[in-house]
Amino acid sequence: xxxxxxxxxxxxxxxxxxxxxxxxxxxxxxxxxxxxxxxxxxxxxxxxxxxxxxxxxxxxxxxxxxxxxxxxxxxxxxxxxxxxxxxxxxxxxxxxxxxxxxxxxxxxxxxxxxxxxxxxxxxxxxxxxxxxxxxxxxxxxxxxxxxxxxxxxxxxxxxxxxxxxxxxxxxxxxxxxxxxxxxxxxxxxxxxxxxxxxxxxxxxxxxxxxxxxxxxxxxxxxxxxxxxxxxxxxxxxxxxxxxxxxxxxxxxxxxxxxxxxxxxxxxxxxxxxxxxxxxxxxxxxxxxxxxxxxxxxxxxxxxxxxxxxxxxxxxxxxxxxxxxxxxxxxxxxxxxxxxxxxxxxxxxxxxxxxxxxxxxxxxxxxxxxxxxxxxxxxxxxxxxxxxxxxxxxxxxxxxxxxxxxxxxxxxxxxxxxxxxxxxxxxxxxxxxxxxxxxxxxxxxxxxxxxxxxxxxxxxxxxxxxxxxxxxxxxxxxxxxxxxxxxxxxxxxxxxxxxxxxxxxxxxxxxxxxxxxxxxxxxxxxxxxxxxxxxxxxxxxxxxxxxxxxxxxxxxxxxxxxxxxxxxxxxxxxxxxxxxxxxxxxxxxxxxxxxxxxxxxxxxxxxxxxxxxxxxxxxxxxxxxxxxxxxxxxxxxxxxxxxxxxxxxxxxxxxxxxxxxxxxxxxxxxxxxxxxxxxxxxxxxxxxxxxxxxxxxxxxxxxxxxxxxxxxxxxxxxxxxxxxxxxxxxxxxxxxxxxxxxxxxxxxxxxxxxxxxxxxxxxxxxxxxxxxxxxxxxxxxxxxxxxxxxxxxxxxxxxxxxxxxx
Length: 805
Description:
By secondary structure, the chain is an all-beta fold.
């Protein structure tokens, strides 16, 4: 008798409810709400009918395969067999609410439709899921919540949008193991108004690469529409989170600035009202490439690319645009529209950087070094800047800047009248806490109405090369204080301005302040004072070695209000200076004028060559120097001014020095304008050679001598003396040679007088004839009636004397 088995074979059977299990439980089949047949297969293990949960319409709301060890490494595939018949809404897709695979490690999950969320991994599995392939994530299934991937996931392929949350997190206490190999999104990561969920991808480990065919759009929730390294607290950076590369190829669903060109993206990353929404964030970021614009929202740090410790490379083919706060919320949009890294390798902006009204919006920012930044268009400041907080919208800020290239212009921000939260302060700036290697601006630097707008600065370091190559305007001050200006706390090797240095209506606007030496300074146009104090000024605390100015240096005229320091160059020491035009002073109004059209050295001047010196009866144009700082009683000389050449050869009849003062031994201190020539401080000061190629009028050439009652051309003139005056008996004030090729034109006044004076004048000629001077010092004096009155032209008596004291 043959034995009969009491165990029923595992053959095909009909499962409970609407699921049919076949192939020994490896295949589950059901009919969804649209009437389509859906087949679910597993490459390992088997399904149970009670693992499938449906809603009343027939949609699969949950596949619960948690802690099923036989499914470890399984590939789970959903396949749709559409039924096309009258009265059906058949499609080739299926929406799955939730897959619970906690405790399992799956090989792959493939769904030709939307997956609301999935939980997978845990325990000892370093790789929770090999590959997830879906049409969309969290977009259509109606399921909300977070997809928790406990451990790594090899690849995520989403044909459409990600509108739910996916979180790859550490497994079994191993920090930094929530890894994502590849993230490929055919649509957008969408947390915006058209999204049903927050739309974000988080991880605690490494995201090797991500390609987004659409855009990344933030919404109202914090961190919505973002790719981010996640930490122990919500939104915090994991200590080991890392991004290899992210490429964003298209536009966001709700594009505020769509491109008018076919195939060209508009906004690729868009911040929302939620903090850090529309963002790419990790502790370490390799490269990020964005096809369109990065646009900040109203949320803090929205529309941002951030590498907490480092950001290697960012390429934005569009613009970086700062966010704007909403009415009544001035602290909003802070850092919106941001590229940030603890240190940054390189940043390329294909068009412009625009600041917004949000503080620090539209900015490339690092507390460390930024090696290279290239902006193919302009940097324009916004309106940001509350009165107590620096704004820096539309800016590049770093602890140290290597190479910065701005092909367009740097433009300052503007205040909004009546709104103290929109002052435009510190907007449109390039700033380094230490040094700038090289800075090239292909356009102009234009100050705005905000303070420190259109502003380039370092705090504790110098600049290798700074070039402003614009062909139209140059460095131009605005109505804001220190707008359209440079402030460098260190030396500058090369400083080149292709056009003009022009002061504005704001104090210190259109100015250069360098707290260190300058190797070479070249200005292709004019230096022209503005309508406020310290405008069109060049201040160098150190050696201004070589200077070339193609145009003129012109101070401003004052009105009823006193004006100080316009069209003014000052340095500790001036090496060689060539000015193609003239040094021109302004006219003093009723308010007074202090230092308009002047060149002064606190120590010494090597040589100056210029076309002319033109002052007026209310305010002379001045060139002055004190003398070398290291002079002692044992020094052989005290050469304050090496040489001065005024005018071009061949024009002796042209007046090239009018109301001009060339002064050795005089400091820059004018005692607030009461001593307009400066303060006489050295009776030993010397001048080398002075060549005037033309005529002089109302001109003084003085070395170590003080004026008499009616000027320098009277018997009351004497060697400088008194408190604060250096006078070594071993050193005589001296002029080595004075040549005036033209004549001395007398003024119409009968009460003024002018002089060429020192203790010793070695050689002099006038109108082509040498002046007979007695040998040695202190001989050609008023006291001995051996002074020399230079003959005047016409019927007016001469008023210029050459003499010794």
